[in-house]
UniProtKB/TrEMBL annotation:
<dbReference type="GO" id="GO:0051536">
    <property type="term" value="F:iron-sulfur cluster binding"/>
</dbReference>
<dbReference type="InterPro" id="IPR017900">
    <property type="entry name" value="4Fe4S_Fe_S_CS"/>
</dbReference>
<protein>
    <submittedName>
        <fullName>[4Fe-4S] dicluster domain-containing protein</fullName>
    </submittedName>
</protein>
<dbReference type="Pfam" id="PF12838">
    <property type="entry name" value="Fer4_7"/>
</dbReference>
<dbReference type="InterPro" id="IPR017896">
    <property type="entry name" value="4Fe4S_Fe-S-bd"/>
</dbReference>
<dbReference type="GO" id="GO:0046872">
    <property type="term" value="F:metal ion binding"/>
</dbReference>
<keyword id="KW-0479">Metal-binding</keyword>
<keyword id="KW-0411">Iron-sulfur</keyword>
<feature type="domain" description="4Fe-4S ferredoxin-type">
    <location>
        <begin position="1"/>
        <end position="29"/>
    </location>
</feature>
<keyword id="KW-0408">Iron</keyword>
Length: 128
């Protein structure tokens, strides 16, 4: 990851079509572990690195606090995402031969200019 969508989301779906890597799933999608809100697949989100100057989803979102920063999808945060997956916070894709597509299997790009404090606070993406 990544960014993530919170309970503030009003399911307007303005963000999903803006994602350059199709990382945002609508409410009701079988791969979306959430109920009533959209979901960002952390194993797919690249924080729009190489696509835009800032996350496109957040630019499209009309709702304060609906799209927030999450931890980078890197090996340093492998257990963070594994634990989150076990708790149902995430639903990491399971590959037939590679198993769960955790950061230790495939890291994703992230914005190095976003501080860890900002990520830990899950600060609103639009504020940065
Ligand atoms: S930050 Fe970019 S890549 Fe990640 S979910 Fe939003 S639009 Fe997609
Ligand atoms: S644009 Fe914002 S409020 Fe609308 S579905 Fe996406 S996250 Fe939710």
């Amino acid at each position: 990851m990544a960014v993530k969508i919170t309970e503030e989301c009003i399911s307007c779906e303005a963000c999903a079509s803006e994602c350059p890597v199709a990382a945002i799933l609508p409410d009701g999608n079988e791969k979306n572990p959430k109920d009533g809100i959209l979901y960002v697949k952390p194993e797919s989100c690249v924080e729009c690195v190489d696509h835009a100057d800032s996350p496109r989803c957040a630019e499209a979102c009309p709702t304060e606090g609906a799209i927030v920063w999450d931890m980078p999808y890197t090996v340093d945060f492998n257990s963070y995402y594994l634990t989150g997956n076990e708790k149902g916070e995430y639903k990491i894709r399971e590959h037939k031969t590679k198993g769960l597509m955790l950061p230790e299997v495939k890291e994703q790009k992230f914005r190095a200019d976003i501080t860890m404090a900002t990520r830990e606070a899950h600060a609103n993406v639009s504020d940065f």
